[in-house]
Amino acid sequence: MVSLLAELAFVKGHGTANDFILYNNEDATVKVSPAQVVALCHRRSGLGADGVIGAVRTENIDVPGLDHGNATWFMDHQNADGSYAEMCGNGARVFARYLVANGLETEKEFSISTRGGVREVQLHPDLTVSVEMGPALEPSPALAAKIHLATGEVFDSVGVFFPNPHAVSWVDQTVLTQLSLLEIPTAEPIDAFPDGMNVEFAAITGPGEVTMRVFERGVGETQACGTGACAVAWAARRSAPEYEKNLDWRVSVPGGELLVSENSETGYFTLRGAAELVARGRALI
Questions:
Q1: Structural domain range at position 172
Q2: Of these residues, 21, 49, 88, 160, which one is catalytic?
């Protein structure tokens, strides 16, 4: 019966069509279970989204091993399957837009806390949002797993963490458009990514320009991935000597375009792109 169901006030938003359900949980009293996240994110029987994000005041949540620093808000992000990710670049941009639009933040530049650490965000007049993504974390020894698709195709990859685990595979642009990413790719050796991985298939289309598709851990193929765009930009710059001076990359994804910049002195990456809020309502959970 409807009368026995709880209601969750939400806002729907997306960053380059990577979409999220956001809700205010500042006192950390709302408990959304993994099963409820799955139900909310379902494309036909739910609201439809790649993930769910709760806005929690940092003073009300303790995450083991995480220092919230000077951040007022914690981005409590769950993937569509209910699992937690270390960081979500597109989600962070949408989260920043949500906080400002709802008067929870009044500045255009501020810090947010994520499971991957504290990140600086900036809202721009053109309605794009920048988020500082931290440095690339290169595994040692280097990861060079073989990526297997359910179709039987096998690709070389390079591994990197942002801090989510990523495997970047270079393919021809014609191959990129034809790949079937309906099922979870697997890695060889099987223990290369013990916590799972995001897999990016990418093609360099010019100096500072790259096109990619991504299968996100805990979601499936998405229209964009912020940490994945950073992983691809990192790998692109190091893929050939002629790209070493390219600190700025324009990353084309199915949902639009992302800009990734690498600071040569600090090694930190910045992700910039659109962040839009499209609806608000109340969901029954």
A1: 146-266
A2: 88
